[in-house]
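The instructor's notes for this session suggest beginning with a concrete chain rather than abstract definitions. Hand out the sequence below and ask the class to guess, before any prediction is shown, which regions might be ordered.
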Amino acid sequence: MADLNMIDALNLALAYELEHDPDVVLLGEDIGVNGGVFRATVGLQARFGAQRVLDTPLAETALAGTAIGMAAMGLKPVVEIQFSGFLYPVIDHVLNHASRLRNRTRGRLSCPLVIRAPCGAGIHAPEHHSESPEALFAHIPGLRVVTPSSPARAYGLLLAAIRDPDPVIFFEPTRLYRLFRQTVDDDGEALPLDTCFTLRDGPDATLVSWGGAVQDALGAADLLAQDGVMVEVIDVATLKPIDMNTILTSVAKTGRCVIVHEGSRTGGIGAEIAAGIAERGLYSLLAPVQRVTGYDVVVPLYRLENQYMPGASRIVAAVKQALEAS
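After discussion, reveal the predicted structure:
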């Protein structure tokens, strides 16, 4: 048991699976000798060898296609894409092959593939290094989409993703990589997929978020508590499929819901959650569902980055609006 940041926790989970499952292999650009652009795989090639931790050419399309073939033949490849903006060439293979393999072969083949990608703004990087494209991948049938919000959840969710027999897109919030440390026990215990995590209880409103924005939601919860407003904070964690039951149970208790995400507003995961609440929890609502999101623009350069992101002040304002509406 150790206090680790998210990068350390991801490295620990990858090492655990490499050690305990000979079918697990890692692929990516500069992940071997250099340990990856954010050093999530540092030391793993030296420990497990170049046939288990493979440095690949700078060719995301070829990387995805190769990994899908490996997965179809029984290996468990874990692919690192350096930044989420470099995922777009991968969509062709993921949409046309990885997500359909089980259905196409009537269950004869599966695709136990994990694609890891840093995502989100907050590190003063260009737009291709700062995007949150989770909604694009959540729209593809046959994929799971997962994103952790803390070191402990990064460890447990990555273990679960690698052990899943079907493809998983694993988005890692870049701004959380080294933001804080948390006690992580290297016990090989996976966290459940398809499950929300309730991080804080409260009767006044429900804050629903995921990834890096969870920390914004927790910060907003602290500010609201100073005014006597106690909110429930839910980390969605698995964005496809969504555990709506946990969200609906919370909304039934609080009567108000604010959804927070960094990705752009139109067609976002927040809209899907709001629709689910409207379909199954409308009569629980005391106020309209609020969304605090990124804007429908390209992620701006760092001088405007904070204006783009759903910070604590915007979340607090949305919660107060929900309280006033009721």
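Then share the key points. The two ends are 46 Å apart (CA to CA). The domain at 197-325 is CATH 3.40.50.920 (Rossmann fold).
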